[in-house]
Design brief:
Number of helices: 4
Order of helices and strands: HHHEEH
CATH class: Mainly Alpha
Strand content: 5-15%
CATH topology: Arc Repressor Mutant, subunit A
Number of strands: 2
Distance between the termini: 15 Å
Structural class: mainly alpha
Largest sheet: 2 strands, antiparallel
Low-confidence stretches: none
Length: 85
């Protein structure tokens, strides 16, 4: 099942836990566990984006900015190798 999760992440255009869980007919909690395993095993890498604001609105004086980093997952070379087997 981990390989199916990896393949789904590789094929989706936009990472969406509800969509991936739905496509694989598993709960989001099970998917979260599988994603953690794939990251730990080196098949996926996780990028939380920049911790600083790099948007066009940078430099404003609004103290309650609602911009949050986007979490991105990508299949590593090790993951690509697994999927090609």
């Amino acid at each position: 099942m981990l390989k199916e999760v990896l393949r789904e992440i590789k094929e989706v255009k936009v990472y969406s836990k509800p969509l991936i869980a739905h496509n694989l007919k598993i709960s989001e909690e099970v998917l979260d566990d599988m994603l953690r395993q794939l990251i730990r095993m080196g098949y996926l890498s996780e990028d939380l984006g920049s911790p600083t604001c790099e948007s066009e609105c940078a430099g404003c004086h609004v103290s309650s900015c609602s911009i949050t980093p986007i979490k991105m997952l990508s299949v590593t070379k090790k993951g690509e190798k697994l999927l090609s087997q």
